[in-house]
Amino acid sequence: MFGNISRRALARLLGGSAAAATLPNLVSESGAQTPAERVAGHRSFPPGFLWGSATASYQVEGAVHEGGRGLSIWDTFSHMPGKVDNGDTGDVADDFYHRYREDIQLMKNLGLKSFRFSVAWTRIFPNGTGAPNQQGVDFYLRLTDALLEAGIQPFCTLYHWDLPQVLQDRGGWENHDTAKAFADYAGYTVSKLGDRVKHYMTMNELRTFVEVGNQEGRHAPGLKLSRGRLAQLTHHVVLGHGMAVQAIRANAPAGTKVGVAENPVATTPVIESQEHIEAARKAFREENAMYLTVIKEGRYTEQYLKRLGSDAPKFTAEDLRIISSPMDFVGTNVYQPAYVRADANERGYAMAPPPASYPHMYSPWLTIGPEALYWVPKLVSELWDVREIYITENGTSSTDTIAADGHIYDTDRVMFLRNYLTQLQRAVSEGVPVRGYFLWSLLDNFEWADGYDKRFGITYVDLHTQKRTPKLSAKFYAEVIRTSRVA
């Protein structure tokens, strides 16, 4: 069928318009490979690539009043009228606290090599500081033991937005002491899990919990801070990250790896020409100035400080040294692009927002731009010489319903994943050091202010019975994992 087809025409058949430029020469002089083998090679990932999935404590665990757990800001926020769609809360969620063994069997059935979970700070320290709670420690020991018994490598996130309410009552991340409390919690947790867990992420999506929770007020704790207060809070957050890196180093066994899971502004050239690519590179560094850039460079950019003026955060040289404590890897959560074009302005770039008619998934914010999964790891690697990158989240919501035959045919999610993974394979094939991919999410779960309406899982969860039903996308992902190629 493919005997006389051109490389560019074959790229079109593969569904990867952007892949044409990177498509390897599929015609060997010996003619040893079949056309199917050539296509498979083009879409394949290297041996040892780590395929996983991810969840977060408040989104799946439930059991909020069990095991000595204290209250977090999301317990408080979700019970405030009008804050979460349909009045949903995480009180029960997916009942993962009781059903984790059942869910680990789901992971085994999929063939997952790794599972990214988060520890609930208030299960370890119910009041944020003070005496630890052994019941909470024991739960995560049982969880990680069960994962390892199943041959699944645990990746642990130490903060996925569930700040202890007691600490919020003392000022939350606006209070410098919260950074120290976080580091103490991180160090203690790692001292207990360190013989089981070898990869830790300090925090998940700094930008989201800072800005959506403390500027826009749509997430916990529901604040709308002034620009100056927000800038200082942001500084305390990245300082807490750096202090946690140091605490993990001090308490973890040799060979432990530490990173962060950030959702950077995914600057993507609107046209893949040199001028627009360079603009995207400049934009990536500047648009992420207060998060990944200061973490990797140990300084705030001149443009960032100039833009804030008198609202710039107060900091010391020692703060910057701590913030930039060396990491072993960078995790990036990638969902949508931020298109960038070259411009003659002072910054050298301008944002090119998509029009209202641009296609998006069931979550209105999730505009479809698969090439973001190529450009984010590429720019992270090039800007800061990062040698180990993980895609710590990628996935989509969908209007999932159970068909008459009992199946869930989430074809839109399958196509979303296929297109995004094709772009990730493009990056990996060019030598971008992406070592693994964590699909969001294993289960339908509590999607923050959207409640349970926006289903991100590849496993359907009946919230009334807690029955789990793998969707079509689960079968797709299982095939990706089995063959380590875009299915």
TrEMBL record:
<dbReference type="InterPro" id="IPR033132">
    <property type="entry name" value="GH_1_N_CS"/>
</dbReference>
<dbReference type="GO" id="GO:0005829">
    <property type="term" value="C:cytosol"/>
</dbReference>
<feature type="binding site">
    <location>
        <begin position="447"/>
        <end position="448"/>
    </location>
    <ligand>
        <name>substrate</name>
    </ligand>
</feature>
<dbReference type="InterPro" id="IPR017736">
    <property type="entry name" value="Glyco_hydro_1_beta-glucosidase"/>
</dbReference>
<feature type="binding site">
    <location>
        <position position="204"/>
    </location>
    <ligand>
        <name>substrate</name>
    </ligand>
</feature>
<feature type="binding site">
    <location>
        <position position="440"/>
    </location>
    <ligand>
        <name>substrate</name>
    </ligand>
</feature>
<keyword id="KW-0624">Polysaccharide degradation</keyword>
<keyword id="KW-0378">Hydrolase</keyword>
<feature type="binding site">
    <location>
        <position position="335"/>
    </location>
    <ligand>
        <name>substrate</name>
    </ligand>
</feature>
<feature type="active site" description="Nucleophile">
    <location>
        <position position="393"/>
    </location>
</feature>
<dbReference type="InterPro" id="IPR017853">
    <property type="entry name" value="GH"/>
</dbReference>
<keyword id="KW-0136">Cellulose degradation</keyword>
<keyword id="KW-0732">Signal</keyword>
<dbReference type="GO" id="GO:0008422">
    <property type="term" value="F:beta-glucosidase activity"/>
</dbReference>
<dbReference type="GO" id="GO:0030245">
    <property type="term" value="P:cellulose catabolic process"/>
</dbReference>
<feature type="signal peptide">
    <location>
        <begin position="1"/>
        <end position="20"/>
    </location>
</feature>
<dbReference type="Pfam" id="PF00232">
    <property type="entry name" value="Glyco_hydro_1"/>
</dbReference>
<feature type="binding site">
    <location>
        <position position="160"/>
    </location>
    <ligand>
        <name>substrate</name>
    </ligand>
</feature>
<feature type="active site" description="Proton donor">
    <location>
        <position position="205"/>
    </location>
</feature>
<keyword id="KW-0326">Glycosidase</keyword>
<dbReference type="InterPro" id="IPR001360">
    <property type="entry name" value="Glyco_hydro_1"/>
</dbReference>
<comment type="similarity">
    <text>Belongs to the glycosyl hydrolase 1 family.</text>
</comment>
<keyword id="KW-0119">Carbohydrate metabolism</keyword>
<protein>
    <recommendedName>
        <fullName>Beta-glucosidase</fullName>
        <ecNumber>3.2.1.21</ecNumber>
    </recommendedName>
</protein>
<feature type="binding site">
    <location>
        <position position="59"/>
    </location>
    <ligand>
        <name>substrate</name>
    </ligand>
</feature>
